[in-house]
Task: inverse folding
């Protein structure tokens, strides 16, 4: 047999063979497995991909596959086995990759033949960071492969290198260890490569990211420098800024080596590495990205986020560009203004917007299709979709060149494609090709004469069989005779068993069944050989033509990627214009004058969910750097702060903003400390998390930073929290001089405005009525006069007995503090402790009576109940006076 399960006999040299005692199939499996340790091997056996040994147990646990047994190993133990159908491989691959598992796919390279084993080969290794197949990738987000190399000194900068394999984008940045979490949140890598030494010492930094450890020698900077010069034709690295960057070069070497290993014989298209400057973007650390809910809510899902609200893109590549722009707001106002001008033109010229929108609508993912052309993994229907999109791409280029916006014109110029690509694809790809090359009928009819002849021979079998059947019926006189075909028996002549003795002498018995006999004749055998070989030869010819076509269109990969980037950027600008029109957003003014001035500002996500939103103003200038925001819980302090940060972010991303008017000055980073959560896995309490984030802000903030601080110091005792909050606010206002929104319930902090000229007080207003508290949501100048905490507790459904007692306790505390002539001076070092005051019995009785009356809900009383209550109150009032 060609692929036998019979074990090889041990003896002689076999005694030293580590695979002795295994069948040829298992020997082949074990040899491949030993060459690729650490990956789950899917081994092709007929119509299934099988896993064995520990891989089978692992697949059973992750995928829920049925665990069976196949033969025994050299020690006599049964071999665990679990498999997935070849037809549904991609869905299982997606689940494995999502679980962070790297998978090697082994295919059968030859057909079974007598005396010859089936050749098998690993054709690809799928890892979380090297995905290129559309079925495995998130349509709206890239999944780059990254490598981290620490600096050599304790505080030295390390290097983060990343490659997006689906489009060849290759980048690097210098990065200190303390900034690494923020960079990882910005890039969201699908997988990160670490040296074995680093993995042991820094594993906690990469929580939630699949980590692949490589031997230290993979991170060879000298080899990395040589590879860059060799692969990208560079004579010197100085022009790329990489000449004296050993950490970056080491990361480049690790990534290039890993890609070569995982992609096997396929070579992806790669751009030369680009060194990113940190100063190019408004910095957002991981905490700020989470708190602002740019593309993921604080809960960790994709609910109501900024991305979800503003994404009106027609293409998936447009959505990916939009996501990138939102996570990479720019500090270069020249580029930002060019985006604003493009959005402005698209907003005002509705005809142009409609025509450009029609051009991009329905386009396939040209970017990822181009990447798969380079990897030679593109499917026939994807290539057909690319062919059909080229006309729309041409229309987009023509329309864009008529725009006034310099950015739109530049994008249109980039989208112009050589007509040769369209000619090649229209000539060679069938109008509606099969989904897979192995199914045939991918190459267009008439493109190749040899293929057409083979197809004619393959496809005319039906006519031949009908004619042969009629001729044989006439020759034998058997009206029940049939000439048929199936994949198992091939071609045959079928007659009832009762008539089998009447067939001619040239009939040769092929198969005996219960009620029929099957025969073959020399004429039918000759046709069978010709027809079956025609099918195999036509498939072989198609593959040959397909491979040649992919060879010829490799030169179009880079132009396609450039055109895709241009269309994606235009799609993003169209999305900005659509949302600006429907949500009434305005063009912000990007100014060199420091500060932020917003009129009628709104939260872009919250306003989308509310029927009526109360807009607010915000003025932050060099003489007004810190706003102390007071007011009730649920009053809108956090929403107000986030709205200011999101408007700044949107403006720097190139979007219009939700406001009546907006002026944005230079911003280098946005820092936030909002919300309360613990980190039990790392042994950090809520207060510890709060202090850690606050410390990070104080270390990073500059005079051009926008800082949001929400209720800092609430996780400890009142005086500890108040002292810390006051010290942090003073540091931000006096030392770092950042633009700060500082929300607090510590009314003592409102004194800062009298101590520091750059501090001002604002508050969110509320009104308490007989039916409870009403939040006005408008931000006004000056401090709040109270916090309304008990009223909010009532609104939350707190039992009335609890809130009554809370009011009584609050009145008692306020009465005691009233003995002091002035409010606690937070900034007086030796201020004496206020002495508690004792309340007289009559004062206490009067206060309790007044509280009881104030809690009455008179709107719900019937006339009879009201009269009874009035008599009761009169009696209690008399008793109080008598005391």
Result:
């Amino acid at each position: 047999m060609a692929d036998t399960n019979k074990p090889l006999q041990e003896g002689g040299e076999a005694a030293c063979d580590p695979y002795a005692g295994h069948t040829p199939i298992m020997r082949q499996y074990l040899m491949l497995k030993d060459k690729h340790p650490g990956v789950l091997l899917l081994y092709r056996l007929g119509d299934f991909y099988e896993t064995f040994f520990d891989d089978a147990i692992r697949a059973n646990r992750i995928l829920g596959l049925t665990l069976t047994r196949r033969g025994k190993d050299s020690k006599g133990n049964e071999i665990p086995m679990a498999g997935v159908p070849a037809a549904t491989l991609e869905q299982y691959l997606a689940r494995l990759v999502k679980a962070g598992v790297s998978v090697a796919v082994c295919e059968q390279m030859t057909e079974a033949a007598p005396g010859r084993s089936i050749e098998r080969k690993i054709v690809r290794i799928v890892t979380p960071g090297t995905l290129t197949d559309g079925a495995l990738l998130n349509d709206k987000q890239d999944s780059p492969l990254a490598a981290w190399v620490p600096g050599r000194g304790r505080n030295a900068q390390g290097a983060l290198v990343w490659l997006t394999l689906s489009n060849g984008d290759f980048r690097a940045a210098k990065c200190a260890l303390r900034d690494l979490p923020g960079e990882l949140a910005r890039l969201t890598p699908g997988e990160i490569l670490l040296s074995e030494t680093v993995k042991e010492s820094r594993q906690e930094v990469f929580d939630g990211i699949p980590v692949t450890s490589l031997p230290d020698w993979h991170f060879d900077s000298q080899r990395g420098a040589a590879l860059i010069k060799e692969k990208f034709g560079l004579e010197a690295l100085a022009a790329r800024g990489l000449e004296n960057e050993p950490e970056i070069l080491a990361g480049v070497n690790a990534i290039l080596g890993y890609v070569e290993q995982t992609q096997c014989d396929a070579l992806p298209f790669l751009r030369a590495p680009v060194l990113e400057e940190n100063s190019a973007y408004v910095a957002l650390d991981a905490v700020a990205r989470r708190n602002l809910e740019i593309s993921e809510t604080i809960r960790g899902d994709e609910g109501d986020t900024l991305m979800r609200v503003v994404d009106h893109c027609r293409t998936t590549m447009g959505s990916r560009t939009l996501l990138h722009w939102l996570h990479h707001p720019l500090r270069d106002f020249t580029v930002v203004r060019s985006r604003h001008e493009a959005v402005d033109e698209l907003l005002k010229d509705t005809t142009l917007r409609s025509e450009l929108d029609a051009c991009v609508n329905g386009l396939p993912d040209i970017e990822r299709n181009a990447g798969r052309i380079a990897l030679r993994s593109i499917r026939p229907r994807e290539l057909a979709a690319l062919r059909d999109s080229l006309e729309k791409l041409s229309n987009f280029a023509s329309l864009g060149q008529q725009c006034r916006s310099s950015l739109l014109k530049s994008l249109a110029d980039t989208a112009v494609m050589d007509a040769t690509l369209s000619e090649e694809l229209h000539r060679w790809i069938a109008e509606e090709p099969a989904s897979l090359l192995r199914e045939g009928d991918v190459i267009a009819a008439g493109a190749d004469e040899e293929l057409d002849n083979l197809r004619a021979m393959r496809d005319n079998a039906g006519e031949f069989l009908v004619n042969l059947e009629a001729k044989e019926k006439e020759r034998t006189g058997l009206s029940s005779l049939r000439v048929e075909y199936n994949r198992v028996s091939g071609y045959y002549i079928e007659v009832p068993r009762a008539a089998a003795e009447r067939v001619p002498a040239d009939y040769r018995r092929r198969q005996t069944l219960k009620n029929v006999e099957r025969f073959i004749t020399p004429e039918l055998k000759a046709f069978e050989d010709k027809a079956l070989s025609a099918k195999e030869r036509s498939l072989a010819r198609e593959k040959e033509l397909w491979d040649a076509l992919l060879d010829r269109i490799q030169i179009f990969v880079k132009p396609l990627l450039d055109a895709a980037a241009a269309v994606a950027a235009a799609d993003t600008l169209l999305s900005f214009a659509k949302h600006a029109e429907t949500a009434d957003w305005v063009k912000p003014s990007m100014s060199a004058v420091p500060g932020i001035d917003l009129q009628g500002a709104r939260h872009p996500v919250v306003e989308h969910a509310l029927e009526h939103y109360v807009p607010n103003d915000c003025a932050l200038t060099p003489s007004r750097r810190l706003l102390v925001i007071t007011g009730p819980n649920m009053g809108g302090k956090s929403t107000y702060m986030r709205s200011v940060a999101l408007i700044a972010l949107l403006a720097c991303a190139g979007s219009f903003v939700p406001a009546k008017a907006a002026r944005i000055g230079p911003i280098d980073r946005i820092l936030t400390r909002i919300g309360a959560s613990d980190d039990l896995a790392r042994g950090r309490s809520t207060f510890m998390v709060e202090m850690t984030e606050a410390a990070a802000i104080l270390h990073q903030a500059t005079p051009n930073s926008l800082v949001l601080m929400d209720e800092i110091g609430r996780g400890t005792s009142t005086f500890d929290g108040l002292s810390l909050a006051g010290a942090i606010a003073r540091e931000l206002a006096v030392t770092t001089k950042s633009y700060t929104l500082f929300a607090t319930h510590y009314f003592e902090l409102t004194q800062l405005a009298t101590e520091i000229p750059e501090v001002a007080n604002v508050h969110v207003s509320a009104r308490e009525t007989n039916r409870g508290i009403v939040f006005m949501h408008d931000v006004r100048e000056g401090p709040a006069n109270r916090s309304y905490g008990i009223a909010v507790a009532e609104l939350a459904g707190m039992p009335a007995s609890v809130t009554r007692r809370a009011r009584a306790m609050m009145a008692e505390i306020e009465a005691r503090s009233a003995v002091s002539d002035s409010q606690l001076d937070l900034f007086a070092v030796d201020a004496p402790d206020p002495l508690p005051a004792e309340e007289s019995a009559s004062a206490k009785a009067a206060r309790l009576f007044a509280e009881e009356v104030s809690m009455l809900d008179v709107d719900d009383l019937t006339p009879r109940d009201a009269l009874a209550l009035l008599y009761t109150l009169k009696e209690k009032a008399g008793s109080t006076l008598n005391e």
